[in-house]
Amino acid sequence: MKRLSRLVILAMVLSAALGLAAPWAAASSITALRPGDEGGAVEALQQELARKGFYTYPQITGYYGAETEIAVRQFQQSVKLARDGVAGKVTLKTLFGKSLSSALAGATLVSGSPSLAQSAKNEENTPDKVTPRASSTASANGSDNGILKKGVTGSDVLDAQRALVSLGYLGSADGEFGSQTESAVMAFQIASGLAADGQIGPRTLAAMASVNAVTADDAPKLASPNASRAEQAVAIAKRFLGAKYVYATAGPATFDCSGLTLYVFKQLGIDLPHTTRLQRNMGTYVGYESLQMGDLVFFDTVPGNGLQYDHVGIYIADGQFIHAASGSAGKVTISSLSSGYYRNAFTNARRLL
Length: 353
Hints:
This protein has 353 residues and is an alpha+beta fold. The chain has three domains: 116 residues, Muramoyl-pentapeptide Carboxypeptidase, domain 1, CATH 1.10.101; 70 residues, PGBD-like superfamily/PGBD (Muramoyl-pentapeptide Carboxypeptidase, domain 1, Orthogonal Bundle), CATH 1.10.101; 123 residues, Alpha-Beta Complex (endopeptidase fold (from Nostoc punctiforme)), CATH 3.90.1720. The chain is 34% helix and 11% strand. It is built from 13 helices and ten strands. The strands form three sheets. It has a six-stranded antiparallel β-sheet. Strands 1-2 form a two-stranded antiparallel sheet. The longest helix has 13 residues. It is elongated, with a radius of gyration of 26 Å. The chain starts with 5 loop residues before the first helix and ends with a strand.
């Protein structure tokens, strides 16, 4: 007989003594295992994950803790399922195959959350994908008009994070909207063609909940792992296309022109000052005919104001550059440097890469 944890035994004894219904799920009703669950069913899950090389903890504990959740996520990733760390119906069937029924036959399970057997029934015809609920100020502390953003906490944030985990943009969910969540939201927004402000409003929420939500695996790859530093700089900058222009900010939600270049080059280990005037002293001089990908390009956009360098961007290639544009654009965008306004305003470039 499989070993039962003390929690399971205690639950059985108390239920018998008090005449209560058993708080564990019968094998036939087990269609999902989640963090916090405990019992023989979790043991079977751990054993199968270990057999396939995903569960590496030295003991089969029968408790669905962090090690089991990580193993489930790794398995889900290997078979291209939503990586939410929950062993739902699809995950279990894929993991065990035809042996699922026999593997869980007679297995006990104490749910870490209310009535697993009941809640699992609602998942029998749905894939292993978490969708966020519509936000409400009642369950999101610190939200402004239902907008989820950095600093907000609560169940709505937790739901949104779980959706981001499921889509592959975030590693874990804790109900606190911090910097990692903000970056994950921005990555999802960029992949989905939304304004990358790092906040979850109605449009972002709807995109996350859509059956056609773009996963991290399906998102456009902007640079390969072996890309040059110049290619990496351009790839990093492109992640923020659509981010709002706000004077004197340096990301990751908003930028001014020198704030964008500061942020991008900081990711590559290069510290830049937060003014165009000072950035134009960095690196080495480059003329228009010698431009290369990753060069900082400088402009005099207000002739006669005494500032020869009042705007900066990053050269891409083929006569284009990416920059945080003020004025009517008001966002991070790509513009032509080969002709028109910015060609006339171009002064010179500096090479740091």
